[in-house]
Amino acid sequence: MADLDDLREGCNFGLGIQTADRSFHVKGAENLPWGMKARLSRIFNPKTGKTVMLACDHGFIMGPTSGLERIDLNIVPLIEYADCLMCTRGILRSVIPPTANKPICLRSDAGTSILTSLNDNVLIDVEDAIRMNVSAMAVMLAIGDTEHEATTVANLYKAVDKGTRYGIPVMGVTAVGKDMARDARYFGLASRIAAENGANIVKTYYCDGFEKVAAACPVPVVIAGGKKLPELEALELCYNAINEGAAGVDMGRNVFQSEAPAAMIQAVSAVVHDNMKPIQAFELFNELKSK
Ligand code: 5RP
User: Fold this and answer.
1) Minimal CA–CA distance to 29: which of 156, 193, 187, 170?
2) Which ligand 1 atom is the nearest neighbour of the CA of 140?
3) What is the CATH number of domain 34-220?
4) Residues 19, 55: Cα–Cα separation, whole Å
């Protein structure tokens, strides 16, 4: 194990300085092979370099929570406004129309329900992901959770081995232990560990000092929305994240629990792709809501 005595916190993140080679629109992907780049280009819009992923995988451990009672009614009508859909294979096969023709970021680990302790992960058979023509596999990385950290690191590592073999990018979905502060230090730690273990995309949470989390992560960071906020606040969250280095959002509750989910995802998209100011995006939300 490395000597921990002189381990110093990072302090020079080169904020505002672009990474050297940005000939490809996805950070850290310049040297990847064609299949990987093609899949990443389905998720990240080549014109803006950004993505709006719609996350609806919550049921895999939580069941039919608010806004996800009926995926056919709650989520399918929103797919047209998303750049990518994040869901489980069960929902994909049973509810999502293949004709939607959207890139899928497949929840590729399985966990125990919220009724027990966090999770004991099982990884999908990569051949099943290939059968469903997914554009990325999402796998959790739980840092600071003594019971599960090793399992999730191993899972992520295996997913990257398998994904690399077949040209399927992996998104590391960061989680930090219950007792850890949800701050830049720990989200930065989890994000960097996910990328160092080979994740091509990292999903984490917005926090104070987020620009350091994004800068120190060599691959694109997308943010989860977290608990439902009033619409204007959620749009401010997106705006701040994008302007501090996020490459997009992978948002669930702040879209599907909105009073007007279709209007909300379009407003989020305007912030992410057009850098629309939150107040204008909120006006857009209200305008679309009243139609
Ligand atoms: C949890 C996930 C969820 O998809 C994620 O939390 C996004 O949803 P929300 O915006 O509702 O937080 O990956 O592991």
Assistant:
1) 170
2) 14
3) 3.20.20.70
4) 28
pLDDT of residue 22: 80
Q: Position of tokens 């000939």?
A: 23
Entry field: residues in the chain: 291
Encoding tokens for residue 50? 């950004």
What residue ranges do the domains of the chain occupy?
A: 34-220
Cα 4 to averaged position of ligand 1 atoms, centre (Å): 33
Q: What is Dmax (Cα atoms) for the chain?
A: 61
122-123 and 248-251 as β-strands: parallel, antiparallel, unpaired? Answer: unpaired
Mean pLDDT of 154-165: 97
pLDDT (mean) for 219-232: 97
Number of Cα atoms under 13 Å in the Cβ half of residue 18: 8
Residues annotated catalytic, as ranges: 203
Q: How many angstroms separate the alpha carbon of residue 58 from the centre of ligand 1?
A: 7
CA distance 277 to 283: 10
The secondary structure of the chain in percent helix, strand, coil, rounded to multiples of 5, reads 40, 15, 45
Residues 6 or more apart whose CB falls under 8 angstroms from that of 119 comprise 61, 111, 112, 140, 142, 148, 152
**CA separation for the pair 84, 208 (Å, rounded):** 27
Q: Answer whether 78's CB lies under 8 Å from 255's CB.
A: yes
**Which range among 92-106, 108-122, 153-167 shows the weakest confidence by mean pLDDT?**
108-122
pLDDT-based confidence at residue 116 (cuts at 50, 70, 90):
confident
Tokens of 181: 């502060």
**Two tokens, residue 136:** 């990325």
